[in-house]
Structure formats: C-alpha cells, structure tokens
Design goal:
globular, alpha/beta, single chain, Rossmann fold, about 40% helix
Length: about 140
C-alpha cells in the first residue's frame, strides 16, 4: 500500500510495451495503487475475480484484447460499467478517438504525452466520481 494514496485509489494500467509500463508505474505509484496488465484480457480476468479499479488507463493496441474491445466488454457489464477508462495511443486519428469516446471511453490521450496532463485528466475524472477532493 502506498502511503501517499490517502483516498486508496486503484488504477489499472493495460499496456504491453515494457518501457511504457515502467514509465506509467513510476509516475502513477507516487499517488495511486497501480496494477499493470499486458493486455485487456488479463485486466478483465482480474476484475472478474473481484479486483476492481477506480480507473483504467489502457493502450489502444494490446494483444488478446485491445483498448477498444476492453471498453466494449466493460460497458456491457452491469458490474463494471461505471469504471472510467482513459485510452492512451500513438494513434492520432480523429476517427479512432471518436470511436473510442463513443464506445464509452472517458478520455483519449495521444502518445507521447505529458505525465502532468495525464495526472490532471485522471484527477478530473476521479473528482467527478466523488473519489477525490481538490486538495490531492
């Protein structure tokens, strides 16, 4: 348990690139409890075992179950529907962003990204959910 996580916020990171996993782990663990999954299938399996995150950050293109498919699986579930999802992708296509947002993603961030901007976007979503106060 991370002592700088007073709200006990759990973030799942779905990313197959080892470098990006390390970057996101290093950056996010200062504020959140972080679990890394190499694909959406493993993240979904963990959720089905009762390990529920407060927020998911998912790469658009991971093997077995990519970001868009993960969004679709989460949004059709009565149990997981309300879990917010931020998509990270090197894909700059406006059409792909719109597709993800229309499927239920809460945000879409293009790689490379500014970690401070990612943190600000995470906090906006968590505040809307009532899981975070402004002073974190």
């Amino acid at each position: 348990m991370n002592f700088s996580n007073p709200n006990n916020i759990k973030v799942f990171v779905v990313e197959d690139d080892l470098f990006m996993q390390a970057v996101l782990q290093e950056f996010l663990q200062a504020t959140y409890e972080v679990a890394i999954y190499p694909n959406g299938f493993d993240a979904l399996a963990s959720m089905q075992r009762g390990n529920l995150p407060d927020l998911i950050i998912a790469d658009l293109n991971t093997p077995q179950l990519g970001g868009l498919e993960l969004i679709e699986q989460i949004k059709i579930s009565d149990f997981f529907y309300s879990i917010p999802i931020i998509i990270l992708s090197g894909e700059e296509s406006t059409a792909k962003r719109i597709e993800c947002l229309n499927a239920g993603a809460d945000d879409f961030i293009v790689k490379p990204f500014n970690p401070a901007e990612l943190d600000a976007r995470i906090k906006v979503i968590l505040r809307r959910m009532g899981k975070l106060t402004l002073n974190l």
